[in-house]
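just leaving the lab so this will be short. what follows is a protein written twice so to speak, once as letters and once as structure tokens for the fold. can you read through it and tell me how you think this chain folds. thanks a lot i owe you, the record is right below.

___
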Amino acid sequence: MAAPSRSPAVNPRTLYLLYGVELLWVAYSAYSYSGPYRWSAELSLHVFGAYEPRIAFLTALLPLVIATAILFRRLGGRLPALLSPGAERARRSEMLTARVTRIKPWLMLASGGAVIFFLAGRDLLAARAGAILVHTSCASLEAGNVPTSTWLEIEGMALENAAVTTKESHSQYVYVPLASGAWSKEKPLAVLLRFGLDQQPKLDSAAFQGGVSVAGVPGMVRAEYEAAGANVQNALVLIVGDVPHHGLMRSQLVAAAALLALLVAGLMSRRRWADPSN
């Protein structure tokens, strides 16, 4: 009598769940510039003097995925034979695996479309909110007043000596705090100016005009100011010279394309899941 076949001690769905948790953890660490993403980014900064966000993300995620896969395989090899599933369960498992394999390309398209749709939607809302130029001041922002527009002209004093230069992807930016005359080091900073190295804004100006960054303060910048004893956790980042409303059409087109990709991926996933001939 043939011995029953061995199967993983851990359900494959558990592996997918762990992968999802790891992906969310690394995504959060990238957003907050903490944990594995920060370790990866700072290692790159130490070795190369700069870091590429996408590479830092993958470098943080891959070791977790590989370690989980190795542990899964080892646990699967230790399952006692008497706990092996029956023929019906094995058949269903094979069917599920075949279905997942068939729709995998469409799932990848759906995932990419969802991410792009989210980012494009965020930019679209910011562009719509930036149709009117609003004048405000650092004193007002430091008092907790939230502007209604993403296109601002802010009065304040640029703290040039506290400038931070970063390299993000293939671009270099300079961040300069903007404060009111009543600001002190014990208070959080309300505004950070951001401009490229090719720009030369007059930092002795009484006011600065630009668009509000929807991404907020990058983790690396936040960490550098925290090390210097400054709180920029909730600072508004003003991209000097930017006009958010100019990106409205581009954001609409990208959002529409991403939504179309989501719909196509969903339709094809459903068809391929039910019928392998499609």
Remarks:
- Confidence is low (pLDDT under 50) at residues 1-9, 77-84.
- Strands lie at 134-137, 151-155, 157-158, 164-168, 171-179, 191-196, 207-212, 236-240.
- Residues 12-84 form one domain.
